[in-house]
Specification:
This is Amidohydrolase-related domain-containing protein. Residues 60-426 form the Amidohydrolase-related domain. One of its GO terms (molecular function) is zinc ion binding. InterPro entries: Amidohydro-rel, Metal-dep_hydrolase_composite, Metal_Hydrolase, Metallo-dep_hydrolases. α2 (103-119) packs parallel to α3 (133-146). By secondary structure, this protein is of the alpha/beta class. The termini are close together. The chain has a seven-stranded mixed β-sheet with strand order 3-2-1-4-15-16-17. A four-stranded parallel β-sheet has the order 5-6-7-9. It is built from 13 helices and 17 strands. The longest helix has 19 residues, at 331-349. The protein has helices at 85-98, 103-119, 133-146, 170-184, 205-218, 230-239, 246-251, 277-285, 294-299, 307-312, 331-349, 358-370, 403-413, and strands at residues 6-15, 21-32, 35-40, 52-62, 64-70, 122-128, 149-153, 155-156, 191-193, 196-197, 222-226, 267-271, 289-292, 317-319, 387-390, 419-424, 427-428. The protein has two domains: 6-62 and 378-428, Urease, subunit C, domain 1 (Roll), CATH 2.30.40; 64-373, Alpha-Beta Barrel (TIM Barrel), CATH 3.20.20.140. It binds guanine and fe (iii) ion. Fe (iii) ion is lined by residues 68, 70, 225, 270, 322, 325.
Length: 430
């Protein structure tokens, strides 16, 4: 993919922090070697030799970041949305994921997923595959071709899983994981592996210990699920009587962020709907990222995650689509959902937890989640240049609107037809 020095011109909107959105009308965003060299109202002399791509009156925002999505669940979006988590997993999710043993099915279903992700506003994603090593490698091949920068995980499950999907035992699951890592090493520029124990109920202590050894040897990030549903939390208490909370069950097994051993262990935990004081303290101390997935939490009647609290307590937080708990891969939709559920939380649960603002939701879907990938999710100087071009002309309004109002409407009203261009680390995707 071609990467060069150039300038994007248009109406630029990006987060400085969770409270402050920077808007530069008819601004210039300079890209040098895949990285932002800054945003300018007038183009400085030193950049005048770079070609300018003029997007006219369109909006230009940082690429969106999906911290939690299940690629093999894309095909059954919208089905079983009347169930809670554990029934939904057994009835819909596990039977569907078992199909990925068949590489022909995997190629066609993952092909649809990859194509859809390519044309979405998402430029970075952390993706669950299934337990199947070969299908996971195929998914990585397909994601690499999209030009997006992603982390993909072969899932580990060696207990409490139906026979048709469960791995044989801890050594086999760990061994397959090592083979997957060795086979994918050096094969991709944009696609990285991430360790993916599904959640505590489906991984034995033996296997979790083995994954911790692999994590250190290969210096890998980790993704999993945490405190999503009350039945699930009660189950974890039974399975790990030695843990003081769900997060501690990961932590005691070395799979919960910074480990004090000098091994960086960047970790994402999806949901965190019911993380109490002890768990939040652990999330913060270990630098663990919360993937807030409001649509999934609504569809599976899991509850409402206290996103406001996570922001205030300085816990890393980004957004996740959690397809197929969420029925759409749109992170714009996740922003709108995050604001909506925060209002219900405020009204029904805790009157002191003010609803999220549009700026906060936009921050979570860009810079908040983006920092998991490094300097990603903003247009400030030094950030990798991920950008999407938004055409809101068809979202008609009888009067001229401010740029920020146009972005706000776009978050709620747009779909992928309105995404008309995309750049990832300075490479043009379309
Ligand atoms: N917990 C364990 N597996 C899953 C999954 O596939 N989706 C969601 N939402 N939660 C989970
Ligand atoms: Fe999930």
């Amino acid at each position: 993919m071609e990467r060069q020095n150039f300038v994007l011109k248009g109406n630029l909107c990006y987060s400085l922090d969770e409270k402050n959105l920077s808007v530069v009308e008819q601004g210039y965003l300079v890209c040098e070697d895949g990285v932002s060299a800054g945003v300018y109202e007038t183009l400085p002399e030193e950049y005048r030799q770079y070609p300018v791509v003029d997007y006219g009156d369109k909006l230009i925002v940082p690429g969106l970041v999906d911290l939690h999505v299940h690629a093999p669940q894309y095909a059954f979006r919208g089905l079983g949305m009347d169930m809670e988590l554990l029934d939904w997993l057994n009835t819909h999710t596990f039977p569907e994921e078992a199909k990925y043993r068949d590489l022909e099915y995997a190629a066609s279903a993952y092909g649809i997923f990859a194509e859809q992700m390519k044309h979405s506003a998402t430029t970075r994603a952390c993706i669950f595959a299934t337990v199947h090593r070969e299908a996971t490698e195929l998914l990585m091949d397909l994601m690499e071709e999209t030009g997006l920068k992603t982390m993909v995980g072969k899932v580990n499950m060696d207990r409490n899983t139906p026979d048709y999907l469960v791995e044989d035992d801890a050594p086999q699951s760990a061994g397959d994981t090592i083979r997957w890592l060795d086979e994918s090493a050096g094969r991709y520029e944009r696609t990285k592996p991430i360790l993916t124990p599904r959640f505590i109920p489906s991984v034995t202590d033996d296997l979790m210990g083995g994954l911790n050894v692999i994590r250190k040897r290969y210096h890998l990030p980790v993704q999993s699920h945490l405190s999503e549903n009350q039945g699930e939390i009660a189950w974890v208490k039974e399975l790990c009587p030695w843990s003081s909370c769900y997060g501690d069950a990961y932590d005691k097994q070395g799979m919960f962020g910074r480990d004090g051993d000098g091994y960086e262990c960047k970790t994402i935990m999806a949901h965190c709907v019911y993380s109490g004081e002890e768990e939040r303290k652990l999330l913060k101390e270990r630098g663990v990222y919360v993937a807030h997935c409001p649509q999934s939490n609504t569809n599976l009647a899991s509850g409402i995650a206290p996103a406001r609290r996570y922001l205030e307590e300085g816990i890393h937080i980004g957004l996740g689509s959690d397809v197929a708990g969420g029925f759409t891969e749109s992170i714009f939709r996740a922003m709108a959902d995050a604001v909506q559920v925060s209002k219900l939380y405020w009204r029904l649960v805790d009157e002191s937890a003010k609803p999220l603002t549009m700026e906060e939701a936009f921050y979570m879907g860009t810079k908040g989640g983006g920092s998991f990938f490094g300097k990603v999710g903003s247009f400030e100087k030094g950030y990798e240049l991920d950008a999407v071009i938004l055409d809101d002309a068809k979202l008609r309004h009888p009067q001229p609107l401010e740029i920020k109002e146009r972005l706000e409407r776009f978050i709620y009203l747009s779909d992928e037809r309105h995404i008309v261009g995309k750049y990832v680390a300075g490479s043009k995707i379309f």
